[in-house]
Every structure is written in C-alpha cells, then in structure tokens.
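Could you show me just one protein sequence together with its fold in token form as a worked example?
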Amino acid sequence: MMGKKAIEAAGVFVEETGISDVLTAEDFLVEREEMLKTMFPTSELMPGASRLIRHLHAKESAWLQGKNLIKRSSFLFMWGWHHFELKTQRHGELFSLMHHVVLGDDPKVKQGKPSPDIFLAAARRFEGGPVDPLNVVVFEDAPAGVNAAKNAGM
C-alpha cells in the first residue's frame, strides 16, 4: 500500500482486515489523522539523510528519492501539505536547501504510485525546464515507488 494515495490505501486496509462493515475508508482516515498528528512531529531523519542532502546540495547534483527530488536540492513528497509540514517541522534548515517541493496532492499529480505523475511533475519544475528522466537517480522505499520511477523512465 506504500506509495498509494491515502484514500486508496485506506480502502484496501479496511477491506483486507475485514472491518469495512464497521469502519469506512473515510472514517479510518479520520482516526489515522489523529494518530499522525502526534507521531509526525517527532519524525527523525533516516541515518545519513542529512549528510547526503548537504553533499548533493553542495555539488548541485540532480537526484530523485522516491519521496524526494533534488537538483540544487528539491524534494517531492506523497503526503498532503499538512502532513509534509508536520513531518518536516523539525528539519527546517535542511529543507531550506530545497529548490522546490511537489506533494501528492499537487494538481499535476493525477494518480498515486505506481503512476509516474509525481516524479514527472517534480522533474518539470527545475529552473531551465524539465530534467531528462534518464539523468535522475531514484531512491525509493516502496515497490510502487520503484515502479513509478521506472514508469517515468528514471
């Protein structure tokens, strides 16, 4: 379910767990939201993430990480803006290095992963026009994200 839009993942969850008769996907998301509000603000960076981002920023490299696209440092995320702010609020200095942010609720992102929409939208936003997908490196933690990157030609 990683990489899917929230409502899609919630629908799968309530069906597969057999709770769809007592909890709708929408209600599940409401309950989940309350839990995320307490969890996300304490999110830690993955080991080595800060060092890698700073290195790439210093080298003005173009790269794409399943949730993050950097050329002169930019990131893309599959969460909505509210979740992005909650999850990144402790890392403002690091995110100030980012060229741009593309979120999963961006109007150019019509479908969730494995659709390439989010990766292609991010690649189009660099100064000087789109980045050639063949020049993008992807680090992804979900099979749907790996497929999305492949579908984008990255």
About this structure: The radius of gyration is 16 Å. The longest helix spans residues 25-39.
